[in-house]
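Quick one: structure for this chain?
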Amino acid sequence: MKPGKLHLAAVIAIAACGHPHAPTIGNAATGAPSSAVAWALLPPKGDGKALDALEIKVSADEAALALAAVPEDVRTNIDEGATPHYYDLDGDGRFDLYLYPQVYFGPSSGFIVYIRDAAGLREAFGVPGDWTIVKDAEHVLLSYDVLIIDESFESGFRHALEYRLTDHRWNVLPSTFGALKGLVPPAASMARKVTLAATTLRATPAIDDTPTPKDAESEQRTTLRGNALADYAAGAHGVALAEQGDWLYVGLDPAVRPTATAMQHGMAETDVELPEDYESPAYKAAQQSLRSPVWLLGWVPKRAVTSP
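Got it. Here's what it folds into:
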């Protein structure tokens, strides 16, 4: 992957990342989610040249200092022949975004991403993938679509960042999981918080509970059955982004985990590990749990909405 090459993946997925400057999901006055969070859940297509235009050409001394600021394992794993990239997002002549090219399994190319503001220099994430950027007068919005290794069971996976030009501060936005073979609206037509009754999150706006045939090598699938991505008990909540007929396209907050899901990605950080005995009931139960603190994207019937 060429650093700075930008595109928007066709299918999106989202996860909430813990961070000292994580944005407030809702506006206390209006009940609406913040514009940056709504963008991260269903972003418009970005400007493919915007990130390249913000790159700073550095001297050898500046490059040496920037390299010395990160751990040795980051420096030693830089892709052969590649050089780090440094970006000034607010035009003040200082680095705000640092991309260190890395070699991952496969091999596949990606970045360890560092961000800097008044809180200092810190790692945001490190995975193979591709960028999209949108910039306006208030903020720079960056999304990173993580490489898919195995489409037989991996969900689309996406990270998102916001650099606020008004106060020169980074926010780590929700990251996401979404179905690779689903229907994603081309743009958000709404952004309102919703709470749901017991329901199923689906890849398309239709009910399909066709049993998924077993695979001889793995029981892991992109869906639980038919087009079912995840089952939820009453009380799940998130943001409605678009509608089609009797259905809403939503992003669901990982604060309430699904009772079962097929949505996973091998590059996502997990907080629930799989048991060692892969034939045990505990292993299967863990397989169908949401092991990453991520937002899930998909369709729910309007009748499942209990508030507002």
